[in-house]
Amino acid sequence: MNDTNEIRSCVERYYESLRTSDPAVVREVFHENAMIAGYLPDGLHQMTVAEFGGFVEAQQPSPDASEDPRSLEILSCELAGETAAVRLRESYLGMVFLDTFAMLKVDGRWMIYNKLFHVEG
To answer: Which of 4, 17, 49, 55 is the most buried (most CB within 10 A)?
Structure first.
């Protein structure tokens, strides 16, 4: 599998973790030192991977179990050696997020190093 396909697979696993409220997959796709930051309607939120995993797990029933609309679109992917910048749009918890991922290839595996998010509309 080439790098672009591996990055796409990581992003899709990330989205599946949200859809199934699975913190174990969150920990798999994010680097252990990653940070998640962005704005929700109530202001700035900043989380570690552990905190984000807890947030994802707390969404019960999961979005898939609730039959929430499903939408994931990778808008761009720019590679530079073993780093990448990925922009994506996904639906989650009744909102549409525009995310920017900084990704690293560590020990031959692509993972998310940082996530910035913005809620559209």
So the answer is: 17
